[in-house]
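Dear H.,

Thanks for agreeing to be a second pair of eyes. The structure we're designing against is below in token form, covering all 274 positions.
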């Protein structure tokens, strides 16, 4: 005991007193002010049940900043959500063994655009196919189109190219080279599509066969649209999907927090970068 007391530089009587004292287990850490954040957190979770605590924190802090109040730490939001059972179920699926080392993200806007398409199925077995192009830096959906119970045509891709160039530059030709990354679908590799891209000043790039990771930016949007919008909405028919799509994509661009943008939305990132 004397050696311990000497090492710790404390009195022997102090050590004896602590040895005889019953250790009281520490309960969950909480703050009195946590209660005021529960209601807004629950409102966000109710509206966006697929969001984890980091995106919930981003939306909560966006609201607090707009009201001129101090922001809240993500760990505090996690603690509140865990205490009230608002966190997501832990993902336990195995990840694929193959990794992708290619770089898709761009360091500034209007350098590389990524295009792809996806399908959303309605309950009556109708299907809506959505064609889109997004920026590999700011993640904004620059242009998109959708069709019910039909395939994606080369004409749709060419119209998308024209719409994207006009939206970003206000002209019919890009002022500098812009890469257009897509898969090897027939609509993208068609001769007329290549001619349109050349006329607009776009440089066509194609991903390797059976390598969706090579266009990971587009794949991420596909996953987000299906998980955070389509999967939590009743979709009786194709007409309902077509009616909801504009609001979904507007919400994705204006509100949805992106981890790669420090949990800002694409347009919030664009405004701050201007």
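And this is the sequence the design step returned. I haven't edited it by hand at all.
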């Amino acid at each position: 005991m004397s050696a311990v007391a000497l090492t710790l530089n404390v009195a022997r009587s102090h050590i004896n007193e602590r040895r005889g004292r019953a250790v009281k287990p520490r309960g969950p850490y909480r703050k009195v002010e946590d209660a005021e954040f529960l209601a807004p957190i629950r409102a966000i979770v109710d509206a966006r049940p697929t969001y984890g605590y980091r995106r919930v924190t981003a939306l909560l802090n966006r609201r607090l900043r707009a009201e001129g109040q101090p922001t809240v730490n993500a760990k505090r939001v996690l603690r509140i959500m865990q205490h009230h059972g608002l966190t997501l179920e832990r993902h336990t699926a195995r990840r694929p063994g193959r990794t992708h080392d290619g770089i898709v993200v761009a360091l500034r806007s209007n350098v590389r655009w990524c295009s792809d398409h996806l399908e959303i199925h309605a309950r009556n077995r109708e299907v809506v196919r959505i064609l889109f192009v997004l920026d590999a830096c700011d993640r904004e959906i620059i242009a998109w189109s959708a069709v019910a119970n039909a395939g994606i045509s080369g004409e749709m891709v060419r119209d998308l190219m024209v719409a994207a160039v006009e939206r970003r530059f206000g002209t019919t030709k890009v002022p500098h080279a812009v890469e257009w990354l897509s898969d090897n679908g027939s609509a993208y590799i068609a001769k007329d599509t290549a001619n349109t891209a050349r006329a607009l000043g776009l440089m066509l790039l194609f991903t390797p066969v059976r390598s969706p990771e090579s266009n990971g930016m587009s794949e991420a949007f596909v996953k987000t649209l299906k998980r955070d919008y389509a999967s939590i909405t009743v979709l009786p028919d194709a007409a309902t999907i077509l009616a909801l799509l504009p609001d979904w994509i507007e919400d994705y661009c204006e509100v949805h927090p992106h981890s790669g943008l420090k949990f800002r939305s694409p347009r919030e990132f664009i405004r701050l970068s201007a």
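Two observations from my side: Residues 238-254 form the longest helix (17 residues). Confidence is low (pLDDT under 50) at residues 95-101.

Warmly,
E.
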